[in-house]
Amino acid sequence: MEAHVASTQPTQVNKITTPCEICNGPHDTHNCMENLKQAFVEYASLRTDEAGGLVSEFMASQDARLSKFEADFKQQQSEMTDKIDTVWKAIINRIAGTLPSDAVKNPKLGTTPVLSVRSYPTIDPQCSLTLLTQSMLSRHISRRQPFPKPASSNRD
């Protein structure tokens, strides 16, 4: 099977242009280099008009997405606030000494803490390790038991 490719002759197209109104050159007036500022303004306005429709459509879709996001966010914020309130009430009830069933009060609520005679410096009162150390020290002082001695290592 043979393929015949027809040879095409280049055709010449003559563009009819009107001479420039500013310099009478062979180009359009808006492309004239003698008035660069006007050429830029026309070019920029042409490109802005072309993109104008796309930008407004984009902004409308973004506004719709933003309003949906705001509504979802407010709903989640409300749900989270309700959950935090529930947990907060449970913590307050625990601190007040009530059990979750609210049937029996904590018997230790009326006890008073025992203060030791000797005070120890604390690094951070919020640190649980410091509180644990203070608790251990107060037990040893109240029982008058000696502290355990560290195991000695033999270095030969």
DSSP E strands, number? 0
Q: What number is the mean pLDDT?
A: 68
Fraction in beta strands: under 5%
Radius of gyration, in Å, reads 43 Å
Portion of residues in helices? 40-55%
- Biggest sheet record: none
Number of helices: 2
Q: In angstroms, what separates the terminal alpha carbons?
A: 100 Å
Descriptive overview:
This protein has helices at about 35-95, 130-145. The chain has a domain at about 110-145. The longest helix has about 60 residues, at about 35-95. The mean pLDDT is about 70. It is elongated. The chain is mainly α and about 160 residues long. It starts with about 35 loop residues before the first helix and ends in a 13-residue tail after the last helix. It comes from Tanacetum cinerariifolium (Dalmatian daisy). This is Ribonuclease H-like domain-containing protein.
